[in-house]
Design goal:
11 helices, alpha/beta, 6-stranded parallel beta sheet, 321 residues, 35% helix, 5-stranded parallel beta sheet, globular
Length: 321
């Protein structure tokens, strides 16, 4: 590829609105940054994922795609980008916008569905082996994490929320899990418990928060994503629902156990040898059939995963890390 005006390459990277999908795309972005050290990047993503990219290397511009009626956000993106001659446009959203920009080369996502998302993203540019997700954390976030996180005891990080109520492990199970693990005969005696959630999820996770003694509890509610990532990097282990937070924990290298039921762990499982998944005794198909028959769109489908099985999965994961 050649160089755009100004003596350096210009790369446009369009990624997901959803946090989890955006995390899983960061490996490809990191590969591009290493492959083209003279490139400057413009990254377009949704507001929830924006914090992932603020410290990305050679970031020239971060465009936040906030959904608007009639998909006007795509028109705004086109207006923002049409005046630039791009050396490479990587469009993981496979949108029309990238087809109407001046670009020497284009690559589109969504062509190899059914594989794990990390593999799917890598295939966009034919990269093998697929690069693992990578999170860039700035000094300010690291300093804040150092202030929040203890240095004299292990930390169990819990992600009790998810973007779909049906795939949230019951909150009382998280409370029971924390109690089991922190007992003197538990798998993590003396551990501090880090509870992470969005501010709007405070009410639903309150039973978990209230079950943990003040001396053992660290709350991280509604904090910026970079700080969350820096805190997760310092945690001993993360246990949580199939969610963007689970992918963030895995991406910073923390041993991660993902809890699955109606989700697709073969496509959306946490990535890396330091990660594991455990699912309900029922298959995904059985759970979705139950949901359809119930007529209740908020039916909890995670009750077939016991605390005992999660504790055993944690023991196995800790033994490997």
């Amino acid at each position: 590829m050649g160089q755009a005006d100004g003596g350096f390459m210009k790369i446009l990277f369009i990624t997901s609105n959803r946090l989890g999908d955006a995390v899983l795309s960061t490996g490809l972005l990191a590969w591009l940054a290493g492959q083209y050290p003279d490139a400057k990047f413009t990254i377009a993503c949704g507001p929830y994922a924006a914090g992932l990219f603020r410290a990305a290397p050679r970031l020239e511009r971060l465009i936040i795609l906030t959904k608007q009626p009639w998909k006007k956000h795509w028109l705004d993106l086109w207006r923002d980008c049409v005046g630039t001659r791009w050396d490479l446009v990587v469009d993981l959203r496979n949108s029309l916008v990238s087809r109407f920009l001046f670009a020497e080369r284009r690559a589109y996502g969504g062509k190899h569905q059914g594989q794990h998302k990390v593999i799917e993203h890598a295939s966009v540019l034919g990269v093998h082996p697929p690069p693992a997700p990578h999170i860039w954390i700035d000094h300010a976030a690291e300093a804040e994490a150092a202030r929040i996180m203890p240095v004299d005891r292990p930390v169990l990080a819990l992600g009790p929320a998810a973007n779909w109520a049906c795939k949230q492990w019951p909150i009382e199970n998280f409370a029971a899990l924390a109690k089991r693990l922190t007992e003197s005969v538990g798998a993590l005696p003396g551990v501090a418990v880090l509870v992470i959630a969005d501010e709007k999820e405070r009410e639903q996770i309150l039973p978990l928060v209230q079950s943990i003694p003040d001396r053992d509890r660290i709350e991280l509610l509604g904090r910026e994503l970079a700080t969350v990532a820096a805190c997760l990097k310092r945690a001993t282990i993360f246990v949580g629902n199939d969610s963007g937070l689970m992918h963030l924990a895995a991406a910073v290298g923390t041993p991660t156990l993902g809890l699955f039921g109606p989700g697709l762990e073969n496509i959306y499982g946490p990535w890396g040898s330091h990660c594991a998944t455990i699912r309900t005794v029922e298959s995904r198909e059985e759970l979705l059939t139950r949901l359809k028959r119930s007529g209740n769109p908020f039916l909890n489908l995670m009750r077939g995963l016991s605390v005992e099985r999660v504790v055993e999965a944690i023991r196995k994961l800790m033994a490997l890390n």
